[in-house]
From TrEMBL:
Protein name: Glycerate dehydrogenase
Gene3D superfamilies in the record: NAD(P)-binding Rossmann-like Domain
Superkingdom of origin: Bacteria
Keyword presence, Oxidoreductase: yes
Length: 344
């Protein structure tokens, strides 16, 4: 049985080879690796990822060496590299596609299903880092940590900012979590010691379970109206694309902080810019953008009520080993003929 890994800039061939030993306990398993170039520059790579997220995998052509390598593969593992019809046509023996991330936008799921190819992913591989980062952004925006940085301000001793009337400590404030999956739950767990009130909107979870996990289940409309912080952790799909727009921002408190460490596509960025420019909300802390890298003429870069970071929430030095640990659980089930846990 051949497993082909498509390495890229995020999880490299070296990362895969370092973890290759986990397959030693399985008989007749051959592991092969091919490096896929998603772009020469960080701008090109970011554009590849964003376009695939928006359009799916079929827009890009596949290198001939990939098509040759995948011919005899039963399992194909990818990170960001696209897996569409062209690869599936070449991979006559393909039975399983694994994605080393929680999202599978880079796989043509409909085509895989039509061919009887299972698709698994790695939910939770960066859940903890993203949850940590989300809470950090909440505090950074409320308490002006980035704006008051003495290094970037070249020593300017500024202690008052435009948000001073609501630059409060978090105890007693209400945090609204949109999407109460792994990351949403971890954000809630990290916030509990701060003494906040937690409310959550989760369409696909029974209210009793939301409550049991530590948050008060509410409608999206209620969450937007009562929350001092709104943080979004929903999965991006056609039903959730642009789910937060001008109407939703208008419902929020004038002092509310909006946080997005999930996907840019969940939010109408123009509506967010409007809300910030017109003081419809108090501020925003963002790690994802409609265009990445962010355009130098994006109005967000000129605002003093935002904290912006370059899509770093899930970036840690151990992301590769975390990804392997998650996907290996399902690969082990596959080898043993057991039902797959993270099947999409």
């Amino acid at each position: 049985m051949k497993i082909l890994f498509m390495a890229d800039f995020s999880i490299t061939a070296s990362d895969i080879l370092e973890n290759k030993k986990v397959f030693d306990s399985y008989e007749d398993v051959e592991v092969d690796v091919i490096e896929v170039n998603l772009g020469e520059t960080k701008e090109e790579r970011a554009s590849y990822i964003l376009r695939t997220e928006q359009e799916g995998p079929e827009w890009t052509s596949v290198p001939e060496e990939v098509l040759e390598k995948v011919k005899d593969a039963e399992i194909l593992i990818t990170d960001f590299a696209a897996v569409g019809k062209e690869i599936m046509d070449a991979a006559k023996k393909l039975k399983l596609i694994g994605v080393l991330r929680s999202g599978v936008e880079n796989v043509n799921l409909e085509e895989a299903k039509r061919r009887g190819i299972d698709v698994i992913c790695s939910p939770g591989r960066v859940a903890a880092p993203v949850a940590d980062y989300t809470v950090a952004l909440m505090i950074a925006e409320t308490r002006n940590i980035v704006r008051s940085n003495l290094v970037s301000s070249q020593g300017e001793w500024k202690i008052r900012f435009r948000n001073f009337p609501y630059s409060h400590n978090m105890a007693g404030k209400t945090v609204g979590i949109i999407g109460f999956g792994n990351i949403g739950q971890m954000v809630a767990a990290r916030l509990k010691p701060f003494g906040v009130n937690l409310v959550a909107y989760e369409e696909y979870m029974p209210s009793e379970k939301v409550q049991k996990l530590g948050a008060q289940p509410v409608s999206l409309d209620t969450l937007l109206r009562i929350s001092d912080y709104v943080t979004i952790h929903a999965r991006l799909c056609e039903a959730t694309r642009g789910m937060i727009g001008k109407e939703e921002f208008a419902k929020m408190k004038k002092t509310a902080i909006f946080v997005n460490t999930a996907r840019a596509g969940l939010v109408d960025e123009d509506a967010l810019i409007w809300a910030l420019q017109n003081d419809e909300i108090g501020g925003a802390a963002l790690d994802v953008f409609a265009q990445e890298p962010i355009s130098r003429d994006n109005p967000l870069l000129k605002m003093d009520n935002v904290t912006l970071t370059p899509h770093l929430a899930g970036t840690t030095s151990n992301v590769g080993s975390n990804s392997f640990a998650v996907i290996m659980e399902d690969l082990d089930r596959y080898f043993k003929g057991q039902p797959l846990k993270n099947k999409r």
